[in-house]
Records
---
Amino acid sequence: MTEAVEQFRATPVALNIRELPVNTAKIIGHLTRGEVIQKLAESSDGYWIKHKTHGVEGWSSKKFLEKLVEVPPTGGALPWMAIAEKEKGVIEIPGKENSPRVVEYLKTVTNIGPTWTSVDETPWCSAFVNWCVEKAGYAGTKSALSTSWLKWGKATTKPVKGCLAVFQREGGGGHVGFFIEEVPTYTEIYVKVLGGNQEHADTQIGEVNEKHYRKSKLLGYRIPSNYVPSST
């Protein structure tokens, strides 16, 4: 099985290609806005991407390169889904103790203070999504608000496995998780979601699991804005 090729798109009007992965290295070429490159290597500090473009092999700053997400083939899933699957069963610890893993999720958000990011009773569905997306190498929202994902990527009416499903919760508030499938019933359609801070069926304690939500409460599906056609 061959390793998937990572692709990036240049975002500035002109982006330097340097001989070495440092700002003081010789400039040996340029990328223009919208040009797509394939990653050959990444610098040890994670700040530079090596590529070969226009016959020139060199390094460009990762800060100005937007990672492209491939549309998964039929039956496939977005890249962060495999990461989320492995987190199933992570659960809050009742009482004064806190789940180290849930606290790790919460550290990915920046719009709440340290007191809130250190306790697993803090609503963490959006933190879980941010953590998974970032672990896959992509940018999230950095927000603990589930509705922040309504401004991420772009809307779609044709969800794919792993895209974001944002809901209005019963009784107020919101929720976000990764779409799995729509399940029609006699009365209405339900959306099966893999997410964090979803109540355990027996204990009602928040955990990472799969759960069904009413589609009538759906606020929107979101997919990455930088999708590229899959070569698979």
Note: The longest helix spans residues 125-135.
---
Amino acid sequence: MTEVARRPEAEGGTARGVGRRVVAHENFAIGITLVALIAALGGASRGATVTPSNVANVLLQSSVRGVVAIGQAFVILTANIDLSVSGVGVMAMMMGGAMMTTQWQNIVGYPVSPFVAIPVMLVVGAGWGLLNGTLVSRLGIPSLIATFGVWQLGYGAAYYVTNGTALMELPESLAVYGSLPAAPIIFFSVAVVAYIVLNHTGFGRNVYAVGGNPVSAFLSGINVRRTYFYVFIIGGLMAGLGGLLFLSRGMAASIEALRGLELDSIAACAIGGISLFGGRGNILGVVLGAIIIGVLTNAISVMHMGHAARYIIKGAIIIGAVAVDIIRRERRR
């Protein structure tokens, strides 16, 4: 009896037991999808998508999307949505660029150091996130409407700062943040911090609880409105960081630079298993989802498939991911 009782426990530590746990993990299918996608696109492009330079380009692109998607994940986990990320990111990017440029658009009269401009960009992003959080948590405006309005405000403010002109002539020291290996390191470091916050802090537990059932969370003593407030600040901060990475990568900025970033960030979350109904998902899935979006977007460009294919594929991915989420929810009932 003793031997029989111990056998399942012992098996859990074997290679077979570890393998079963890996296969059963919620991100296993996403990881397999990424590997299969890379292989398929590599074959279809005759190796053009898997060259070292192109892989580096995918990592850089994914870093911008990834940090913004992580901020988006905090918001979606509370069953909200943030459509303002591209407007917030552009505003932060143009504000920082307008402080550092040597062109006539400089708004302070002389070019400042990146060490001064970068904190300003992050504060600008967090500030717009604070506005989102106030509109949703204090005024009760639905997040879809509030963030859509802030999205437009962000673009309008960015246009006002630069008169709609592109910014160039930025300090060379800025380029380090948007190049290898700095950009992926920043991305993965943000992911690690987000994982710790969501899985090992009281705030993270509150985020999941509020997204799962805000009424039950409130009755349990969780301040639901405060949780909403803070996740939007995190989303704005990550949008500002995404704007920084994009600016330092291209060493130029324009009003149209981050168009579609809100779609990319939502798609990365949906692919990564973050439920758009809130309360379920993890950061590893978001990281994989952002890389999948990066691989697809890059392949569309390398294979000259055009903008139509880009939007059709991303739209189909979001619809498919939401459909899968709904099916899973129905099966759990």
Note: Residues 1-10 have pLDDT under 50 and may be disordered.
